[in-house]
Amino acid sequence: MVWKCVIIHKEVGDKMKLPNLMEAKKRTNEKVKTKTNEYIVTHELQHLGEGLFYYVKTYGCQMNEHDSENIKAILEDMGYKEANSMETADLVILNTCAIRENAHNKVFGMIGRLKHSKETNPNLMIAVCGCMAQEEHVVEEIMKKYKAVDLVFGTHNIYHLPQLLQKALEKKGQEIEVYSMEGDVIENIPTKRDNPYKAWVNIQYGCDKFCTYCIVPYTRGKQRSREKEYIIDEVKQLVEDGYLEITLLGQNVNAYGKDLYDDYTMANLLEDVSKTGIKRLRFVTSHPWDFTDGMIDMIAKYDNIMPYIHLPLQSGSDRILKLMGRRYTKESYLELYHKLKERIPNCSITTDIIVGFPGETEEDFKDTLEVVKECKYDSAYTFIFSPRIGTPAAKMKDDTPLEEKENRLYELNELVNQYAKETNERYVGKTVPVLIEGISGNNKNMVMGYTDTQKLVNVNASRETIGRIVPVKITEARTWSLNGEVVE
Ligand code: 5AD
Ligand code: SF4
Asked: For residue 310, which ligand has an atom nearest its CA?
């Protein structure tokens, strides 16, 4: 059998080329264009998936979840239907995450499993996309060792999926298309939303911050903001369709507009989106460096902008923050934190923290614990540093033993959990608005939803409350969730 590999790179036409992290690092001043007719499904392609079932498995962040919603809609435009399980699918797409080593391992484990399924079902097609597909060493490994994978496409190639699938179906060999450079913002990609009440809305792609540990600026390309008119129109349509909540999505949403406008910022966008009348407006993720007073003014002014902010700290040590390239100090972070707490009543704040960054001493770690003690976060996502090939931090000297890093993570988590439980306990006896989304995972006789402050609540209420924002009296606090009952 002949294995043929076609790697197309946009900037150089159809020349064979592997994804290239160094190339992905390049930034140009060229303004990104908006394209409204790049996604094309011809009549022939509309029938390609007829009688076939797909399954999309998503790893990683909300950006990937929303990309999967796009991928599902594209497949349905091609006649595919969604399978109930991976086992019954004719096409499995793994939408991958490259942020840490364990995400990598999970994907390769899954590819190994699918390879076996292919032995019993030779017609099964396997595709890999997402951030791992942007990494050259991953694609090389797939080409060498995982020939069961039929198709690899990058984060900038989603709109081209119909044509890629057609090529992959026609030939016996791997089809690989990964653009290293980001290209334009494409506006006509469809979406099949997973949740009937809450929707993701992209406002910005990529990241130019280049924190030294992070692979995202390489896998997602340079910061590109969507034009405001497209965002506002999308939200207006969602309101009309009955959605109650939207989350504005981006790797660094606070930098919205900087690449596109001279005088239109995230603060302006928050105001304009708020005025569409959407009941609940959220946004992720915020880099503290770009968080302006103008944004705080808007969150404080408009009731439909939720009092919930995810504000990644990463480290509480100035020395480590500098090595991470985070552009703020412990002091300036705390200043912003306290300003948010003062200006936005009942605001809940969550964070991300990395322990065991190269060279982190016990002293540095203690500084992180100090910030956690001062901020008493509603919750925190905590990670052990994971070196990512191609990033500056992966080359830094790292002599802290893994066991020591695990101990630090354990100590940090104990503290984080303590504050999470304490903040939740303050809700007991209070009545708060909850958007009821569905049946509770814990108890089929209960429903579940989220407060305005993004707390998960299991509610004693009838299923008729699903799809509504209802007042709920909190009766019990746990570390990661609340219990309550409807008071109507
Ligand atoms: N190692 C560990 N954690 C990381 N994150 C990003 N890159 C790495 C890495 N190399 C964490 C950061 C970020 C979150 C999404 O993932 O805390 O905010
Ligand atoms: Fe990664 Fe830093 Fe950009 Fe966040 S702001 S995506 S951590 S480089």
From this structure: 1
